[in-house]
């Protein structure tokens, strides 16, 4: 019998797109109550098999290339000098999501970006804890502490990292982050059946079309340059959806452990944030003592692409000034 933790990870992955993020719900619902209360273990097990089959069979859209000179299981890049900033991308994205920050923040900070396993140039993997990969990157680069910046799924990874390795975090900067254990309404499940069906049929083109209809992209679609980038990234990384069951998270789940955060937290919310993003933001404000909240105007969930000037300015205020 599948353990509830595994069931929740699977259901979290399915909830992902509908719930308000590029992979927003995948990580947010890592052991989501939706997975336990709405779906029987048998159904969840079948769903897990569908995702694993899709991941094993499909490689369309997934990139692969020689790894960096390190022996790490993830591809990463670093540039610049100064305070270290680790950028953690969202679900069905890769490190290129951060291009406006990679270029716009200049050389007075040490920027680090990487591809989560199964995304971009990082190969697929068996079960892994993203926080451990983040730690390995910092160790490889000789970075004692970093400003950890995550959006959506990347925000959930970043929260887990700060909970597990607080001594390596100068500050936690999360933009509409995922949050493991957050419970979504069961109605979001129905909307995702088309995506699961596309994976089951090994129809990655259809899966991509479904993914790109996510409500998380509603405001992005009104911003042609940002929308073009999102479409390109999702098309390149749609197969990484099948990696969600392989993620392992902090225990207890972050939704229950936020009060244990011992690092400064900056929470960034967009002007056009969806209901799930706002609900999670409220949980952060309720449970985290050392927190400051920012709002980015004229942007939705993909705020770092939709309004990079405002996003970069917030990072500069925290990291440089």
Taking all Cα atoms into account, the compactness measure Rg is 18 Å
Structural class category: alpha/beta
Largest sheet: 7 strands, mixed
Mean pLDDT: 81
Give the overall silhouette. Answer: globular
Number of strands: 7
Reconstruct the topology from this structure.
Elements: H1 4-19, H2 24-28, H3 33-37, H4 41-57, E1 76-79, E2 84-88, H5 99-104, E3 110-114, H6 130-141, E4 146-151, H7 153-164, E5 169-175, H8 187-200, H9 204-211, H10 224-237, H11 254-257, E6 265-270, H12 275-287, E7 291-296, H13 303-306, H14 308-319
Parallel strand pairs: 2-3, 2-4, 4-5, 5-6, 6-7
Antiparallel strand pairs: 1-3
Helix pairs in contact: 1-4, 1-8, 6-7, 8-9
Which key features would you list for this structure?
alpha/beta; globular; 7-stranded mixed sheet; 321 residues; 7 strands; 14 helices; disordered N terminus
Protein model, in words:
With 321 residues, the protein is of the alpha/beta class. It contains 14 helices and seven strands. It has helices at 4-19, 24-28, 33-37, 41-57, 99-104, 130-141, 153-164, 187-200, 204-211, 224-237, 254-257, 275-287, 303-306, 308-319; strands at 76-79, 84-88, 110-114, 146-151, 169-175, 265-270, 291-296. It has a seven-stranded mixed β-sheet with strand order 1-3-2-4-5-6-7, sandwiched between helices. α1 (4-19) packs across α4 and α8 packs antiparallel against α9.
């Amino acid at each position: 019998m599948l353990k509830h933790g595994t069931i929740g990870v699977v259901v979290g992955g399915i909830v992902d797109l509908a719930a308000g993020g590029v992979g927003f719900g995948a990580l947010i619902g890592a052991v989501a109550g939706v997975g336990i209360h709405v779906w029987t273990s048998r159904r969840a097990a079948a769903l897990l098999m569908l995702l694993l089959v899709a991941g094993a069979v499909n490689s369309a859209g997934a990139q692969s290339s020689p790894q960096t000179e390190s022996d790490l299981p993830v591809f990463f890049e670093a540039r610049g000098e100064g305070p270290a900033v680790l950028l953690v991308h969202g679900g069905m994205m890769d490190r290129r999501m951060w291009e406006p920050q990679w270029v716009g923040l200049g050389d007075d900070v040490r920027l680090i970006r990487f591809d989560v396993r199964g995304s971009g140039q990082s190969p697929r993997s068996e079960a892994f804890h993203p926080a451990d990969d983040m730690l390995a990157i910092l160790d490889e680069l000789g970075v004692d502490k970093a400003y950890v910046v995550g959006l959506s799924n990347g925000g959930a990874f970043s929260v887990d990292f700060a909970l597990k390795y607080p001594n390596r975090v100068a500050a936690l900067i999360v933009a509409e982050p995922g949050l493991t254990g957050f419970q979504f309404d069961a109605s979001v499940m129905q909307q995702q059946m088309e995506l699961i069906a596309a994976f089951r049929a090994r129809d990655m083109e259809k899966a991509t079309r479904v993914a790109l209809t996510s409500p998380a992209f509603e405001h992005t679609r009104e911003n042609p340059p940002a929308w073009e980038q999102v479409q390109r990234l999702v098309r390149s990384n749609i197969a990484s959806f099948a990696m969600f069951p392989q993620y392992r998270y902090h225990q207890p789940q972050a939704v229950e452990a936020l009060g244990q955060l011992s690092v400064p937290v900056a929470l960034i919310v967009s002007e056009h944030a969806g209901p799930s993003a706002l609900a999670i933001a409220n949980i952060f404000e309720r449970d985290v003592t050392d927190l400051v909240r920012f709002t980015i105007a004229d942007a939705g969930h993909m705020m770092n692409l939709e309004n990079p000037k405002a996003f970069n300015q917030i990072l500069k205020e925290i990291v440089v000034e």
